[in-house]
Write a structure and sequence with these properties.
The structure is a single chain. The protein has 348 residues and is of the alpha/beta class. It has 14 helices and 13 strands. The strands form three sheets. A seven-stranded mixed beta sheet has the order 2-8-7-6-5-3-4, with helices on both faces. Strands 9-10-13-12 form a four-stranded antiparallel beta sheet. Bound molecules: pyridoxal-5'-phosphate (PLP). Pyridoxal-5'-phosphate binds next to helix 3.
């Protein structure tokens, strides 16, 4: 039986070239700034994202946390999307470790926030009842919003509102290269107006570990101190940086293949009786859908599809499939056939 793992792009394994790069990496103590491979990755990342500096971090979650801690103090408030990963999936790190409250703003269907909603969420200054708003957090692509792409114009619209009030803007860009590839825009143009950004090496880009936080020299210096404080100072981290360099050099353009496979998946799902899915929502490598009433629960669907060799995730009533480097059109066919069979069985 062919098994197909559509749970997430985090399941991607390093390429042969990445494994070789890890073996051959020149190493040093990165906490002292002496790992040449980490230094090279950080320079490459900063240049690619159009920011002054960068710091390698253990994960996307750590990158977002360091950005929040570097911008805010205990008692401050950040604005984040009601469907954001920072709010839903990062263990309330900002609250627990920073004493920072999160004010939620609606995300549109594909993830964008409306400038008027951001404006309404910013606390007026000079009133002791209110916490100061000290950071706006965006997400691109927006995982929970169908892996949707937030356009340059949409980003710049909310940046203007925040910057007019001297509020910096951070982007959780775990999959920012998926957004840039979809928009056919150089990534540095897409994030030109934002102050800082985290992107992940370990998702669609296939590196085994790590994310990079990019921003101004001053901001990155603060983030480095927080990284040390939360135990993220790693020694010969060139082992992690080396596959990250391969990822940036050779894995970005191929994300278009994942998008094309996701479109095949999406179009196929939309044809299957009992599946509720709008194929227009599938922009990148993430496809969400629901089950029509009478076809059983999502949990049952996930379990029974797993028995047919197809692994997927579900949360809060929706089922998610994610394409990545190990998924080919043949895997998509196998998955669609299995879903079609299962819906026939569950609908009886
Ligand atoms: C949008 C988004 N941000 C951040 C993260 C966190 O990344 P990590 O798992 O490396 O902590 C994820 C992980 O899936 C994500 O989807």
């Amino acid at each position: 039986m062919m098994t197909v793992d559509l749970r997430s792009d985090v399941v991607t394994l390093p390429t042969e070239e990445m494994r070789r790069a890890m073996y051959e990496a020149e190493l040093g103590d990165d906490v002292s700034g002496e790992d040449p491979t980490v230094n090279r990755l950080e320079e490459m990342a900063a240049e690619r994202l159009g920011k002054e500096a960068a710091v390698l971090v253990a994960s996307g979650t750590q990158g977002n946390l360091l950005a929040i801690l570097a911008h805010c103090r205990s008692g401050d408030e950040i604005i984040a999307g009601a469907n954001s990963h920072i709010f839903w999936n990062e263990s309330a790190g900002a609250a627990a470790l920073g004493g920072i409250q999160t004010h939620l703003v609606p995300n549109q269907k594909q993830g964008a926030m409306l400038p008027e909603d951001v404006e309404a969420a910013i606390r007026p200054g000079g009133d002791t009842h209110y916490p100061p708003t000290t950071l706006l957090c965006l997400e691109n692509t927006q995982n929970q919003c169908n892996g949707g792409v937030v356009t340059t114009e949409e980003i710049e619209g909310v940046c203007r509102v925040a910057h007019d009030r001297d509020i910096p803007v951070h982007v959780d860009g775990a999959r920012i290269f998926n957004a840039a590839v979809y928009l056919e825009t150089p990534v540095h143009e897409l994030v030109r107006e934002v102050d800082d950004i985290t992107f992940c090496l370990s998702k669609g880009l296939s590196a085994p570990i790590g994310s990079v936080l990019c921003g101004s020299h001053e901001f990155i210096a603060k983030a480095r101190r927080w990284r040390k404080m939360v135990g993220g100072g790693m020694r010969q981290a060139g082992i992690i940086a080396a596959p990250g360099i391969v990822a940036l050099e050779s894995m970005v353009e191929r994300l278009a293949v994942d998008h094309s496979n996701a479109r095949l998946l999406s179009q196929g799902l939309a044809q299957i009786s009992g599946i509720v899915h709008n194929p227009e929502t599938a922009q990148t490598n993430i496809v969400f859908f629901e089950l029509e009433g009478g076809f059983g629960t999502e949990a049952e669907f996930v379990r029974r599809l797993g028995e047919k060799g197809i692994s997927v995730n579900s949360s809060y009533g929706r089922i998610r499939m994610v394409t990545h480097r190990h998924i080919t059109p043949a895997h998509v066919d196998v998955a669609l056939t299995a879903v079609s069979q299962l819906m026939g069985e569950m609908g009886r």
